[in-house]
Amino acid sequence: xxKTVLTLLAVTFTSAMLMAQSVxxxxxxxxxxxxxxxxxxxxxxxxxxxKDAYAIYWLGQAFLDxxxxxxxxxxxxxxxxxxxxxxxxWVGMGHVEALENADINTVKQKFxxxxxxxxxxxxxxxxxxxxGILAAIGRANADGGSKVGDPQYGIDKxxxxxxxxxxxxxxxxxLGKCYLKLGGDRGxxxxxxxxxxxxxxxxYAAGYYRIGLIYQSxxxxxxxxxxxxxAIAADITYAxxxxxxxxxxxEKDVNAAKEFLDKYVxxxxxxxxxxxxxxxxxxxxxxxxxxxxxxxxxxxxxxxDFPGIQILYAYDYDRLxxxxxxxxxxxxxxxxxxxxxxxxxxxxxxxxxxxKFPGNEDATASYIQKALDKDTVTANRVNYANNAATLFxxxxxxxxxxxxxxxxxxxxxxxxxEAEYYKVTKAASDAIVSATDTNVVYSFFPTxxxxxxxxxxxxxxxxxxxxxxxxxxxxxxxxSTHGFAVAPIEQYNTFLSxxxxxxKKTIFSNxxxxxIYYTQYVKEMSxxxxxxxxxxxASQMIALYPDxxxxxxxxxxxxxxxxxxxxxxxEKSNSGAPAKSNGSGK
Length: 586
Description:
The chain is mainly alpha-helical and about 575 residues long. It has 29 helices and no strands. Helix 7 runs antiparallel to helix 8. The longest helix is centred in the first third of the chain and has 30 residues, at about 1-30.
């Protein structure tokens, strides 16, 4: 009998060890970002031990890591319904609710309840919360975008966890994520948190990898390579680092990208994500139809609900020239993908496609703003704004082009280069020239004029600012009755007078505009004063071409004579009477 009891105890002990090992296997798979393997392993544990709260918690985490929020929610809710009223389930449900943007104070009440329930009441750990629960709470607040959870609350709990357990490494990963959620200016603290994980365990590749990601986001290739290299040296089988390299090179060197993708496929789970990355590579390699076919094969199989298929379709259809199919695909992707998984690049694709459909300007602007909000690196945000300007220019939406060029300059800071001034000033001029609604022209003209003036102020020795200001003013004054171009022309002529011989044709042309304006359209002065100004202009034109035999001189001299005769006649007929305003413009 004793032998039987011992045997049963041995079997029970062995089963418990296998069970614990299975949960640990699932956790290890999650560390390697192998969510499919993690779900399979943890599901087996839960199937065998449906009341095991710890296993249920980690199965839910596997679902969340795979963006299956409804599945995690259903799992935790079922556990509570089944009477598994356990702190691990409370934390798991709080995690789900945080991702669903529930009231954060209510969520934190669940977390605090879990802490209280697991705080030791005796022994050497008396008064100390459970480290695993603290780490789980930190993980929940580290997950999702910057508006999900309470990252500072997470930081507080994670610091407590690593203080209580001097060997813990995983909490430092969540700690770094929480710092990053607080803003780019906390990147240094994130790096330090990730580095501390590698100090505690030099083989902890995730710490090196996370630091590399930060430097990759900053386009710091040297530092990125250094930390990614350390990650590979620590654990050559850590697949995420190879995918990070693929992401870096896919737009720069498709051959290098392929090498890293092959490494990723070698060590990663064989799942829908892996198939998607292969299809993405085909797109980057210019094999759009092959990429599209790969996506369709995925959709026909087990990956039919994988959100990435739709963004793949959007990219491929866009390059294949099917804008309608591309628009349908990208809109579907944005509606089904979790917000934190949508990249800035994907929002910019949506913006690009949107500009091909008239009337979608608001949607386009919204996509672009979301791309900017996704990235905290100034250089990247400037690039997105400039790309937005290019998109609107291609769609001949020049006012929007100006808006995004100005946004790019504001994000960049400092003094714009001459090339930047030229680009935005030309765009403003194009906006005036292309506009058909005079109300739009009149409302935008002050902006366009101020941009040209800023160009002139910054680069007074360059002619382009002056010429754009004149062109813009002329085009804005559709019937020449407002006098928009008078001051710009006089300013331009002053600049051109520095080298009269080189620019006299342009000055003469500018004077011709003033001549017509003062004789026919001026409103702000009397007709007599208008003629007198016109005669002054004609005299300037004669001075430009003093040769009496030249066509220009003859025109200016004849015009001056005619104007003087008309003025004399007018003054004679109105002698003794007040001069009348040229109110009609005639």
